[in-house]
Amino acid sequence: MKLGPRIHPHLWFDREAREAAEFYCSLFPNSRIVRTLKLPDTPSGEVEIVDFELSGQPFQAMSAGPMFKLNEAISLVVGCETQDEIDYYWNALSAVPEAEACGWLKDRFGLSWQIVPAALDDIMHNSDPAALGRVTQAILQMKKLDLAALLAAEAGPA
Q1: 91 vs 70: CA distance, rounded Å
Q2: Which residues make Cβ contacts (< 8 Å) with residue 81, sequence separation at least 6?
Q3: pTM of the model
């Protein structure tokens, strides 16, 4: 089977592409700035393009002015193995407390993230509708997700 073209996210920033990429690379293992490029004399003035990797996943960021803004329609999902990992990424990334809900946060650059337990996919695909309902209701009450509380909600009353 032939693989198709490689797909990677491209993020538009006003002027913070390099700063954002450096910050993200400082948080995630196996991350690095691959290269940068400055394009002079574009309709946006000088544009900087930053190619980087987060946990081995390629990304591209561009500083090209304020014409377009990041919004919640796109978010990056971080699947965490432990509550300590959830806490680490949440504390490092969250910068807009009023945007926090159900495991979603917004960082200081305006990028939305979902910081979730890696087990959430299995929890949400539980074939018991009552368990799914309890987990959904638990998530709706949380800002930062609590893995132990989600597992308890899935298990139900003792």
Answers
A1: 20
A2: 117, 118
A3: 0.93
**How do 32-42 and 45-54 pair as beta strands?**
antiparallel
* AA letter at 5: P
pLDDT tens, the chain, 158 aa long: 788 898 999 999 999 999 999 999 999 999 999 999 999 999 989 999 999 999 999 999 999 999 999 999 999 999 999 999 999 999 999 999 999 999 999 999 999 999 999 999 999 998 899 999 999 999 999 999 999 999 999 999 87
Domains of the chain: 8-68 (3.10.180.10), 70-158 (3.10.180.10)
The CB-side HSE value for 54 (13 A sphere, CA atoms) comes to: 19
CA angle 145, 147, 149 (to 5 degrees): 90
